[in-house]
C-alpha cells in the first residue's frame, strides 16, 4: 500500500517515510486529496533518545506552505533505546493532486543533549501523475 520509503540519517537516527493516496477519502472533483504517510524512526546510535517535538513543512503543487509543529508524534513522545525503532501512520490533505513534506524531529539524549533529526522530503501524488 505504501510507496518505497525515502530515508535520511542524522546523528545515528534514521527516518524512513512511505506514502499512499487515500482514494476513498479524497474528492478530486472538489480538489480534495488525502494521503497517508508511514514513518519509521530507527535509533542506530549508541544512546537512548526521546522524540520531544516535530516540525513539518507542507507544500502543495502551487507552492502554498503550511507549517505544523507540536509535541511528540500522534500524541506520543517515544523513547528509543539503541537499536530500537518506532513506527506510526498519519495523514495530510491537499487542494492539489501533488504535494510534499519535510521537517525535523527534535530529540533529546539520555544526558539531556538536544538535537534535530532531519525528516527526508517526500512527495505525495496521485499514482498516475509521477513515474
Using only CA atoms, what is the Rg? 15 Å
Distance between the termini: 16 Å
Tally of helical runs? 0
The count of strands amounts to: 9
**Strand content bin:** over 45%
Question: What report would you give on this structure?
Answer:
The protein has 131 residues and is mostly beta strands. Helix content is 0%, strand content 61%. The strands form 2 sheets. Strands 4, 5, 6, 8 and 9 form a 5-stranded antiparallel β-sheet that branches. The protein has a 4-stranded antiparallel β-sheet with strand order 1-2-3-7, with no helix packed on it.
Can I get a quick summary?
The protein is built from no helices and nine strands.
Secondary-structure blueprint of this entry?
Layout: E1 6-10, E2 13-21, E3 33-43, E4 49-60, E5 65-71, E6 79-80, E7 85-94, E8 98-109, E9 114-125
Antiparallel strand pairs: 1-2, 2-3, 3-7, 4-5, 4-6, 4-8, 8-9
Key traits:
131 residues, mainly beta, five-stranded antiparallel β-sheet, four-stranded antiparallel β-sheet, 9 strands, 61% strand, elongated
Amino acid at each position: 500500500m505504501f510507496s518505497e520509503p525515502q530515508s535520511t540519517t542524522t546523528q545515528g537516527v534514521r527516518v524512513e517515510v512511505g506514502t499512499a493516496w487515500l482514494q476513498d477519502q479524497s474528492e478530486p472533483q472538489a480538489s480534495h486529496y488525502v494521503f497517508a504517510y508511514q514513518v519509521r524512526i530507527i535509533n542506530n546510535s549508541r544512546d537512548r533518545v526521546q522524540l520531544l517535538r516535530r516540525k513539518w513543512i507542507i507544500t502543495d503543487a502551487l507552492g502554498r506552505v503550511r507549517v505544523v509543529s507540536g509535541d511528540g508524534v500522534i500524541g506520543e513522545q517515544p523513547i528509543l533505546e539503541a537499536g530500537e525503532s518506532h513506527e506510526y501512520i498519519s495523514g495530510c490533505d491537499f487542494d492539489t493532486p501533488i504535494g510534499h513534506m519535510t521537517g525535523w524531529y527534535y530529540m533529546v539524549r539520555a544526558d539531556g543533549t538536544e538535537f534535530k533529526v532531519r525528516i527526508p522530503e517526500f512527495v505525495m501524488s496521485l499514482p498516475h501523475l509521477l513515474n
